[in-house]
């Protein structure tokens, strides 16, 4: 046998390992003790820069065209949910500052993709005026289209892609008798995709594996329950809830997709990712909560939903007899960009951190989803009004809101509820004449990412001088 090659000096090995993306760098630590020592001693892998913690929840409210932010307290660098610095031109000509998707620390706005942690952003070119996906032959129909972001900093911290996907048609412009039956989704799905590498929109084809969800016009009107926008990215695939009966799994590596039936039909549900992968929370009869896990690791034929939790949570709902505007352990950042009166503080990114530190100095910073702010069950009238807000990405926790307009965290492993804070900003409550339907239209649990470079950056020093 040939003798083993001599080991590389630490400096040379470190130089080679620096060229790896974070995911491969993490794998290299498992090769041998020498490699692990070099990675750790030279601090080549900064796990604290990756989106490995929950920073808060971005909330879109009905009738309000700028997203609010319920921030989790932290001993680390705080993140501001204020996003108007991304707007080019005059500040009095603000576009809609409305988050349409989130993926691993990046947010999608109408005009850009932004990283709130680093305060960097990339402006988006105009969307394609004529999306490539045509309606089935002989059928005119109305189709909603949503945008879904794909960003994996462990593969490429500087690049992202934005997909435009059609939902199930919500109406036909011709009578059913005149329409020919056709499969939905079609055997070949043509999507508009924006790539930050090229800076261009392009058309991509994805071939369907397996059966369609159904046929048109029979599926027309099979809309998603409550939140229109539901999807997540997990390990090279984009999972999108397209109706109240199926999820589309889009594989980015081989340009294929397949249909996965939802575990239940009817009621309210929320699709997202949590501790081990893709989950679906469903709510029946107002308070019967089910948590399902998508076992998607065994191949196409063995994909199945596994029931992880099934409980009527009404008996443990607390009776919160206090003002809905009282603060909780989480910090509500209120932003009202329009009108003569500004409802947000004119403070810099550094000042945001200082204010939060001073106000919370005497309290325990890091929120413990097992023990902090646990609520005792209370006697309530039979009107729970529960709304699903999303999953904690790294704990067995689902976020809810209740009739008292509070954000609650439910830990399904120990069946405990915790109060996090208020659901609506003060100005949203006070302007009842304007926002007379107070409800959440979308929510995005946010995981800060401190890696990557986007083209546009906020000059903090210049801002402080202003």
Automatic annotation (TrEMBL):
| Coiled coil ranges | none
Provide the F-box domain boundaries. Answer: 8-48
Please give the SMART domains that the UniProt record associates with this protein: FBOX (SM00256)
User: Which InterPro entries does the annotation name?
Assistant: F-box-like_dom_sf, F-box_dom
Could you tell me what this protein is called? Answer: F-box domain-containing protein
In its UniProt entry, the species of origin is given as Urochloa decumbens
